[in-house]
Design goal:
By secondary structure, the chain is mainly α. It has 2 domains: 6-66; 78-282, MetI-like (MetI-like fold, Orthogonal Bundle), CATH 1.10.3720.10. Helix content is 69%, strand content 0%. It has helices at residues 6-37, 42-45, 58-66, 78-109, 115-124, 130-143, 150-154, 161-171, 176-184, 189-200, 202-217, 221-226, 235-242, 252-272, 274-282. The longest helix has 32 residues, at 6-37.
Length: 286
């Protein structure tokens, strides 16, 4: 009996699904493990193996975390830490999008001397490691009195050569006929940007917002440098401060609760904006 020509394709599909399931398991299991640990006591966490099912301490752990049970971060509530982190992440994402769109708009649609030189100067900054810029940037923040302020946490991080490059590449796909039609209609630069360019860029904006929100949410080094007060800490810094060198002195149940709460907001942003995010990354026809 002849073998069906669909058999190899079916086998390939099965193997593809198996690899996909394995990849999902590798990515999701650590998150699940952290959640399970957040529902057990510290004694259970320190006594391996950790059970793979939720424990009876979940409600008490989360209640303690939100009611001041975390005392290794200066008594700052989780609400304040989450609020600080969310404000920084949103500020960085919105700032990067605004500055990158403006710079890409100017480079693509305006003709001025050294236009391409300006673009290449922006592009070259991708080759500079973060460590190279930290000391001069910190000195500027000190001179401006922006230490322990939200402005000091956000402003140095809102420039993005990557986002500028992505917006430039998209703007270059805008047909010249559309620009000419806007000119004939009497649209100025601001009206062209507001009524035509911005609606066409929404998927790209959503994709870049998701990426930059996660980038801002997970910041550790810069907030650690420019904040001295516990009131200005982010959730990532709080996690580090909660962990002691001795396992017995670390409230691992509350550490796991804080870890879960630190994971949830970026996860929700990705899930809620998934359609826009994927469309902004893969869509080529506008």
């Amino acid at each position: 009996m002849a073998e069906s020509p669909l058999a190899p394709r079916g086998a390939t599909r099965i193997w593809g699904h198996l690899w996909m399931i394995l990849g999902v398991f590798v990515v999701v299991f650590p998150v699940y493990y952290v959640f399970i640990a957040s529902t057990h006591s510290t004694q259970t966490i320190l006594r391996p193996p950790l059970p793979l099912l939720p424990g009876p301490e979940g409600v008490a752990n989360y209640r303690d975390a939100f009611s001041g049970g975390i005392d290794r971060i200066g008594g700052v509530s989780l609400w304040r830490l989450l609020g600080n982190t969310a404000l920084i992440a949103v500020g960085i994402a919105v700032g990067k999008i605004a500055i990158s769109m403006a710079s890409a708009y100017a480079i693509v649609f305006f003709r001025f001397p050294l236009r391409m030189a300006a673009f290449w100067l922006i592009f070259i900054t991708l080759m500079l490691p973060v460590e190279v810029r930290i000391q001069p940037t910190y000195k500027v923040m000190v001179d401006l009195g922006l230490i322990d302020t939200y402005a000091g946490l956000i402003l140095p991080l809102i420039a993005s050569a990557t986002a500028t490059l992505l917006f430039r590449q998209f703007f270059m796909t805008i047909p010249d006929e559309l620009l000419e039609a806007a000119r004939v209609d009497g649209a100025g630069p601001w009206r062209f940007f507001r009524d035509i360019l911005w609606p066409l860029s929404l998927t790209n904006v959503a994709a870049i917002f998701v990426i930059q929100f996660i980038y801002g949410w997970t910041q550790y080094l810069w907030p650690l440098l420019v904040t001295n007060s516990n009131e200005m800490n982010t959730i990532v810094i709080a996690l580090r401060k909660m962990i002691s060198f001795a396992d017995a002195e670390t409230p691992w149940n509350l550490v796991m609760v804080t870890s879960v709460l630190a994971i949830l907001p970026p996860l929700l942003v990705v899930v809620l904006m998934q359609r826009w995010f994927v469309k902004g990354l893969v869509e080529t026809e506008k």
